[in-house]
Every structure is written in C-alpha cells, then in structure tokens.
Amino acid sequence: xxxxxxxxxxMILALALPAMAGSTRSDDITRxxxxxxxxxxxxxxxxxxxxxDLLQSAQCVAIIPSELxxxxxxxxxxxxxxxxxxxxxxxxRQWSAPAFVMISGGSFGFQIGGSxxxxxxxxxxxxxxxxxxxxxxxIGGSxxxxxxxxGRSAEASTDLQLHAEILSYxxxxxxxxxxxxxxxVFQPDDSGNQSLYGDGARTExxxxxxxxxxxxxxxxxxxxxxxxx
Length: 229
Prior knowledge:
This protein is of the alpha+beta class. The protein has helices spanning 2-20, 25-44, 126-132, 159-163, 190-197, 203-207, 218-227, and strands at residues 60-87, 94-95, 99-123, 137-138, 145-147, 166-172, 175-178, 185-188.
C-alpha cells in the first residue's frame, strides 16, 4: 500500500513538472492560441450559457488552458495561462497585451484520479485588478470569488456572485459551468513574460499597456472587443 502511494505521488509530481518549468517564446504563443480557442468556445458556442453582459463590466479576463488536477490522498491543481486587462480612458479603452500567469493549489482527503480542465476567470472591479497585480494572491482568501452564473443574461446571479471580485468558469469535456476556485493561488509567470517581452518584463507594466501585444493576440483581442466594449 505504501509503495502504491509513492508511485501515485510520483505520477502527480511528473504531471506537475511541465507546469512548473520555464517557458519559451513558442510556449507563450501556443498558450495565447489555446486561450483564444477556449474564449471563442465560451462566448460563441450556440449552446453556451455564459452571460455576455458580465463582460461589459469586466476589468480583466484570465484564461488557463487545460489546468491539470491529480490526486491520491493529497491532491493538487496547477496550470499556466494568460490574463489581459482594460487600458486607457473609458471612451477609447483597449485590452492590454497578455501577461502570463500560473495557478496552483492543493487539497487533502480520500481521493484518487486526474483530469484536465480549462478555466476562465472574470475580474470584475479595480480591487480584484489590484490584487491581480500583486506577486501572489489566494482566490477566495485575499480576493472574494464565486462560481460564475449561467444563462445569457446575468440577471439570475446570486447576491454572492453579484458582490464577488472574481467569477470563475470551467470547461470539462466541452461543457462550461461555474466553478469555485477558493484556495487556489494565482501568481505571475515571470518566465513566460520575459520569454515573450524580454528581460525585466513585469505583469503590472504589461497589463498597464506598456508593451505591444504580439500578432497572435489579435484574434482574442477582437473577440474581447466584440463582447466587452
């Protein structure tokens, strides 16, 4: 039994290592393209229940393609993605170049298994943005969070959802749903930022509009402008 536990623990570690490794420019471009596909599926799919009016007030949107989850007694989740924020005056605001981020967390209990899940996080106000720009914060700890409401309109939102700084969605097997990420740690991926933008590139500067977005971001930017004016 002890041997089996060690084997499973090593398998979980093996899954986590790619997420913890440094990024290359090629990795960054792939992450942008995968994030674009996920966002398009979320907002464009005919059977999507994502409330588009939420995007009108969104200050930032984060997308984590295929966050990995694995567990054997001790569980964990980890993934890498991108985040983009509004920049400029309200009358002419745009979306910033994408900054690269990581999400991780753990859980304890009697559990076994593994899965890969896409995540979309909607940061709804400047308070959530300020926390996003810090080096690291815990979702549901330093930032209020809730599973995102479903339905093309956000009118069915609960009081908790209406006051949450972050609303989160997951996609597993092609189906999007609200998901609670309380306890997950959200932090910059400095390796990814520097691979694409050069040494010294920091999340705050990227999300403030001080760096030009790569051409590969144009498709996602167009989608954001379409639904989040």
